[in-house]
């Protein structure tokens, strides 16, 4: 008897809370379809996998975290752009030292920078459409190999950029 009463109170409470509070946080209201074109890599230094990786990751973000359906014709939302910069530059020599047979070596860091130009077009609400450039970077130990950089650092930087793009388009803060 106590169990049924508690269960009834739980359902009533859940119903009341559900009707009082709803967090959508989305500025997308009546948009149903999205087309995300491939982002070509037009950077002076070309990472051969970056274009496909970034394009796939941004498509997955929108298709998995929104109710938008992908389309190739007449979309409500169009997202396209290009990768305009991919660079690895030395940043500093740290005070950390490493003793080797050849002598003392100071550790240094490099910085990966990726810049992406985005064109966002909302056909149902043209006033929210924009053209913006997104940039992010990550510092890493210069001893990382090129393949380590492409696996870990590129993923880190592109995820941050995708988060910024996604939030600018979807979040209603």
UniProtKB/TrEMBL annotation:
Annotated keywords: Signal
InterPro entries, sorted: LPS_assembly_LptE
Signal peptide boundaries: 1-24
Coiled-coil annotated residue ranges, if any: none
Recorded superkingdom: Bacteria
One Pfam family here: LptE
GO BP annotations, alphabetical order: Gram-negative-bacterium-type cell outer membrane assembly
GO cellular component, one term: outer membrane
UniProt-recorded name of the protein: Lipopolysaccharide-assembly
Species of the source: Chryseobacterium piscicola
């Amino acid at each position: 008897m106590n169990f049924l009463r508690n269960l009834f109170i739980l359902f009533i409470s859940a119903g009341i809370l559900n009707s009082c509070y709803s967090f959508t946080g989305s500025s997308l209201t009546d948009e149903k379809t999205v087309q995300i074109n491939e982002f070509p890599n037009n950077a002076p230094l070309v990472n051969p996998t970056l274009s496909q990786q970034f394009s796939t990751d941004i498509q997955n973000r929108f298709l998995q975290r929104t109710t938008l359906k992908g389309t190739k014709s007449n979309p409500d939302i169009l997202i396209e752009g290009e990768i305009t910069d991919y660079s690895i530059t030395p940043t500093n020599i740290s005070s950390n030292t490493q003793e080797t047979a050849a002598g003392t070596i100071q550790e240094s860091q490099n910085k990966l920078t990726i810049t992406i130009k985005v064109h966002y077009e909302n056909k149902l609400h043209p006033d929210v459409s924009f053209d913006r450039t997104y940039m992010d970077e990550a510092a890493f130990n210069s001893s990382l190999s090129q393949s380590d950089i492409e696996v870990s650092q590129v993923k880190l930087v592109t995820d941050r950029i995708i988060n910024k793009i996604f939030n600018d388009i979807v979040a209603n803060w």
